[in-house]
Amino acid sequence: MSDITKLSLVDTVNNIKNKSISCEEVTSAYIKRINKSKKLNCYIESDFEQAINKAKSLDNKSDKNKKLFGAPIAVKDLFCTKNLQTTASSKILKGFKPQYESTVTSKLWDQDAILLGKLNCDEFAMGSSNETSFYGNVINPYRNKNDLVPGGSSGGCSSAVAANLTVSTVGTDTGGSIRQPASFTGIVGLKPTYGRCSRWGIVAFASSLDQAGPMTKNVKDASLMLEVISGYDQKDSTSSKKNSENFLNNLSKNIKGTKIGIPKEYVVEGMSKEIQKLWDKGIEICKSLGCEIINVSLPHTKYALPTYYIIAPAEASSNLARYDGVRYGFRSKGNDLIEMYENTRGEGFGREVKRRILIGTYVLSSGYYDAYYLKAQKVRSMIKKDFDDVYKEVDAILTPTAPSSAFAIGEKTSDPISMYLNDVFTVPTNLAGLPGISIPAGYDQNNLPLGLQVIGRHFDEQKILDISYALEDEIKFKASIEDWWINE
Amino acid sequence: MTITKDTVKKISKLSRISTNSKFEEEMIKDLNSIIKFVDQLNELNIDKVEPLSSVVNEKATLREDEVKKMNAKNDILKNSPEDNENYYVVPKVIE
Fold first, then answer.
1. Which of A227, A249, A443, B2 has its CA 20 to 30 A from that of A86?
2. Is the pTM of this model over 0.90?
3. Which residues of B touch A433 (CB under 8 A)?
4. Nearest to B34 among A302, A317, A416 (CB)
């Protein structure tokens, strides 16, 4: 088989199970390609020797029934991986080798997947372009005249899936970090309902918003990954008691009679005509499949980003207090303990992370708490209520994923607000704790991929997977990447 | 509300992040633009709204409080920048 790395996750596992290919062949094919793809800067840590050994031992195993049998998978560097460096792409965690494995990644290995390595991301998942990483920016396999960003914060993940450097992956999404990069690279990205997957062992950014989720080549793969990583975990008190579901087996293209809401507030200033056209195309397809299209209003949408940029930094400033240079990672020098802390954090964190810690500290500080943090929590209530009201009349909501296609590296780094606006369509679902999925839906005039987002009710991932599966079948998006970066 | 140099110095101190004048100048600019952006929330009347701190609807439950042996001391200490005889070493705290 010549194009092993082009296979989907489901096809890869099936081919291994019916012995068309061996685990070792698959893992070797990926390693070979990863070694030739350093230019994209997706991988920041790997353990290929271990991966090959595991593949060999799986080939000798008679029971090949596990759901991810032999699938080589790299994960975002936000997941703690036992004895393999985990840095959240930050200097401050340099050298940190966890003595434990995150729940979500444990579930992958329990299903006989093979760990390939760790994928680059924005530092502590703070960013929308993968440009805040201590390990440098990731490059999108799609390009025009310039090298483009892969989106963020799960930019190493999105680029690696699109460039066939991992068969699937798991990212994390606090305000759009799975869905926006998926849109920028022509892949599928799913943020599950808050509580669907355990957060234990994931480097925390904003604990009331963070969720792990799959990033894959297609909707079937996303369904399979989701059913593997979901489920209650005693170690995360916010994880739901609901059992995982058979998302893949239950997947259905029949979405006749589904009520789909189109929120008028998602027509934002500066959104290109191409995005509107793509959205219209999605609406037409839903209609042709027998869905009922209902115009709805989410009146507080415009306040979602300002709310997010109070709540997320506030939680981050608290979560990141643990990085003190004492127990793990980087330590700088200082004449006394306080000076050591200050220098460690001053030198160990990058600019975007420091900016967010400072904002978070400000909005939580005495005299400003009510004016900012408490106010933002109240507006968060209003945003959630908007969705609750709309879900009385619709089953799901269809929107674009991002207001633009991938932009050039460096284009938006000077102005934090223009960078934050990338997440205008994705942030509201995190604030409301809802599931959302981005699927590739077409190309813009520069031949760059664009995504559509389907947002569902709490714990109704099956519905948004079904809608995406039906849309995917109609849209027939074809990845169009030439291997321009390959270094033989 | 405006972020001044003194504000940046104060919140940097609270955050235990060292600064220098270049960083302070950058942060004055960045933080003011972010505060201006989030001040859009002042347009809303929130008097009768309850704050939302968690979207979880399920009741939190307690687990059994069992002692489990971990024996990971050595692995944990391997990650420390400096340790001695099972203790973390930090700059001298007591004069």
1. A227
2. yes
3. 55-56
4. A416
